[in-house]
Design brief:
Blueprint: E1 11-14, E2 27-34, E3 37-42, E4 46-51, H1 52-58, E5 70-73, E6 77-86, E7 96-98, E8 102-105, H2 108-115, E9 123-133, H3 136-142, E10 146-149, H4 154-157, H5 164-171
Parallel strand pairs: 5-9
Antiparallel strand pairs: 1-2, 1-10, 2-3, 3-9, 4-5, 6-8, 6-9, 7-8
Length: about 190
């Protein structure tokens, strides 16, 4: 099965000492990965001082039923572009289902649906994304950078953003405090 090497529907956890401060203790929900590259949405950090109501105001959408939930740092690529990771019980024109585990939407229709109470049952909002070109993530997985886990969707919806990194490692039976910040050579 060729697709087994791809990480769609899994979570990438930044290893200690990843070397890029934008990804320290990052947790990335992998939404696409194939021979052409990969895309994921960061769910491990919230953007200070920015809530969903601020995003809705930008689009002149009444807040309605929407709580002023935190907005996540989705990644360093295109940080003004918004994404919603959500339960599979709702779909819009551009919604993609991710390995039957969650869905990803990137147009304003999902925000309108959340605000009017007809959107997905569970969701988080993020700005920006993490992206890799062809073969780039595969190479990073071979070096000291990322660890992938297949934690359940509770990591997205039931775990606080600040706790997701540790919870992701715990789902694989690993205490991240015991991980070395660099690799050696034999």
């Amino acid at each position: 099965m060729e697709s087994a090497r791809f990480l769609v529907g899994q979570f990438l956890l930044a290893m200690p000492g990843i070397g890029d401060p934008r990804f320290e203790q990052a947790v990335i929900a992998m939404c696409g990965h194939d021979e052409e590259g990969a895309i994921g949405i960061g769910i491990g950090a919230e953007i200070d001082g920015l809530g969903l109501h601020d995003v809705l105001d930008q689009f002149e959408i009444e807040h309605g039923a929407a709580p002023d939930a935190p907005v996540h740092f989705g990644g360093p690529v295109d940080p003004r572009r918004g994404f919603v990771i959500h339960s599979t019980d709702w779909g819009g024109q551009d919604t993609i289902e991710v390995a039957g585990r969650w869905s990803l939407s990137g147009t304003v229709d999902v925000l309108r649906a959340i605000a009017d109470g007809t959107g997905p049952e569970r969701w988080i909002v993020a700005l920006g994304y993490a992206g890799w070109g062809a073969g780039q993530l595969d190479g990073e997985m071979l070096r000291h950078g990322w660890f992938n886990v297949t934690a359940d969707e509770g990591l997205i919806y039931d775990t606080a953003a600040d706790d997701r990194w540790g919870a992701g490692f715990a789902s694989a039976g690993i205490d991240p405090r015991l991980l070395a910040p660099e690799t050696g050579t034999a």
